[in-house]
């Protein structure tokens, strides 16, 4: 029996037990997990620093290193994320009445866990805790396969959580970290449809495409975040600048950072000189269309068909568009169905953007950085789905469950 089969079978067995826990039991355990992460932060930070140093020695870029790096503040945020999940309503067991048939049978639907979720991600050790918490609260077991650069940090975090499970007499295999990042093992894992119910890849385009192409199990893609800010002709310039700088500069290496600025032609002369100074002050590089390039010093010319890149750093594309229709067409062509933002004072423009833009999250006069499970009230998120089946957008607890029918009869038989 292969390692992948053993891991999947262990998780499936553990899932049966986790699915039976009450909400109060799960909440108590999550709070203990949060406390334990904080109490063992020195171990986590020491392990993480070793991996961060290795990444720097191997010349990984700054965005990658940022995603890999943990700090006391980030561990506190990780722990708080677990506590937030603990106070969220538990979707498991929610029942809704469908109706009663003429023959007298009564029909309900009840929400149940999916079973075993395989989470495949790159060098983001915080995903270990976030995914484990959400899967546990929703009654699922989870298999975590992270990137090799963060493997030891992920193992350290998971071992702390697993020890809490053992303390409460629960199977530690409800939270499993794949101890080997060999791609062949991952390939075997995503074929384990007998034991695994869902695969969620989070990471670069190549990873997600590989998993999608080779998995025998349903896949929810957390695809790249090519997020746009469209600044309409009626926009408040100060507000637009704040949305731009926050969306691009605060954490440029994350998937909800802005990657492209679209500007209505009628305001380009007034606003783009301000933008040039603001982006220069934050050392943001510019890739601009032929019409916008003249507003920026040292900008790189970007061909009309070269948009759509996820920079994950201090670089942004800039394009001047004729109107909101042109902006929406551009987003349709180059967006990734992640998060799109409009800055406007026009209610009609806002409504058109909301209704016509095809993205999992559409913002009006709010930063793209709010496209996050905790910011949208879901607690820690397991990912932002850019595919529409069965979840779309930030995935919280309900996205990790499904429904089954409960039919109550009194001996009725079908004629």
UniProtKB/TrEMBL annotation:
In Pfam terms, one family for this protein is: Aldedh
- Pathway in which the depicted protein is active: Amino-acid biosynthesis; L-proline biosynthesis; L-glutamate 5-semialdehyde from L-glutamate: step 2/2
- Residue ranges of every copy of the Aldehyde dehydrogenase domain listed in the record: 8-284
Which keywords, in A-to-Z order, does the entry hold? Amino-acid biosynthesis, Cytoplasm, NADP, Oxidoreductase, Proline biosynthesis
Q: Kindly state which reaction or reactions the protein catalyses.
A: L-glutamate 5-semialdehyde + phosphate + NADP(+) = L-glutamyl 5-phosphate + NADPH + H(+)
EC supergroup of this enzyme:
oxidoreductase
UniProt-annotated location(s): Cytoplasm
Which N-terminal stretch is annotated as signal sequence?
Answer: none
Q: Which GO BP terms, alphabetically?
A: L-proline biosynthetic process
Q: EC number(s) in its UniProt entry?
A: 1.2.1.41
Q: Please give the GO cellular component terms listed in this UniProt entry.
A: cytoplasm
What one GO molecular function would you report for this record? NADP binding
Q: What InterPro entries has UniProt attached to this entry? A: Ald_DH/histidinol_DH (IPR016161), Ald_DH_C (IPR016163), Ald_DH_N (IPR016162), Aldehyde_DH_dom (IPR015590), G-glutamylP_reductase_CS (IPR020593), Glu-5-SA_DH (IPR012134), GPR_dom (IPR000965)
Which PROSITE patterns does UniProt cross-reference here? Answer: PROA
The entry sums up its family as follows: Belongs to the gamma-glutamyl phosphate reductase family.
Tell me the function of this protein. Answer: Catalyzes the NADPH-dependent reduction of L-glutamate 5-phosphate into L-glutamate 5-semialdehyde and phosphate. The product spontaneously undergoes cyclization to form 1-pyrroline-5-carboxylate.
NCBIfam families, per database record: PRK00197.1 (NF001221), proA (TIGR00407)
Could you tell me what this protein is called? Gamma-glutamyl phosphate reductase
Source organism: Neiella marina
């Amino acid at each position: 029996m292969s390692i992948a089969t053993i891991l999947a079978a262990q998780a499936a067995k553990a899932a049966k037990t986790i699915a039976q826990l009450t909400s109060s039991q799960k909440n108590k355990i999550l709070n203990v997990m949060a406390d334990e992460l904080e109490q063992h932060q020195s171990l986590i930070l020491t392990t993480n620093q070793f991996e961060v140093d290795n990444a720097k020695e191997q010349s990984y870029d700054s965005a990658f290193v940022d995603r890999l790096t943990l700090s006391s503040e980030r561990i506190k945020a990780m722990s708080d994320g677990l506590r937030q999940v603990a106070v969220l309503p538990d979707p498991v067991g929610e029942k809704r009445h469908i109706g009663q048939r003429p023959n007298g049978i009564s029909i309900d639907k009840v929400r149940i866990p999916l079973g075993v979720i395989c989470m495949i991600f790159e060098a983001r050790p915080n995903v270990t805790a976030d995914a484990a918490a959400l899967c546990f609260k929703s009654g699922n077991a989870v298999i975590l396969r992270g990137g090799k650069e963060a493997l030891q940090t992920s193992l350290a975090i998971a071992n702390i959580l697993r020890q809490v499970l053992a303390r409460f007499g629960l199977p530690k295999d409800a939270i499993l970290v794949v101890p080997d990042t060999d791609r062949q093992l991952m390939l075997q894992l995503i074929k384990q449809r007998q034991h695994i119910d869902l695969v969620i890849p989070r990471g670069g385009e190549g990873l997600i495409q590989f998993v999608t192409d080779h998995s025998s199990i349903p896949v929810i893609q957390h695809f790249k975040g090519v997020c746009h800010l469209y600044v309409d002709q009626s926009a408040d310039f100060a507000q637009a600048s704040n949305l731009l700088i926050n969306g691009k500069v605060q954490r440029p290496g994350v998937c909800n950072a802005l990657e492209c600025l679209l500007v209505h032609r009628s305001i380009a002369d007034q606003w783009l000189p301000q933008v040039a100074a603001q982006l220069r002050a934050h050392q943001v590089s510019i890739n601009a269309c032929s019409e916008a390039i003249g507003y920026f010093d040292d900008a790189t010319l970007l061909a009309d068909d070269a948009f759509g890149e996820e920079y994950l750093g201090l670089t942004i594309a800039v394009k001047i568009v004729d109107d909101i229709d042109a902006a929406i067409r551009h987003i349709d062509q180059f967006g990734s169905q992640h998060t799109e933002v409009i800055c406007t004072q026009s209610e009609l423009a806002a409504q058109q953007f909301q209704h016509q833009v095809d993205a999992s999250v559409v913002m009006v006069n709010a930063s793209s950085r709010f496209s996050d499970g905790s910011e949208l009230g879901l607690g820690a998120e397991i990912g932002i789905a850019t595919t529409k089946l069965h979840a779309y957008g930030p995935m919280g607890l309900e996205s990790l469950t499904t429904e089954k029918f409960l039919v109550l009869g009194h001996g009725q038989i079908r004629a």
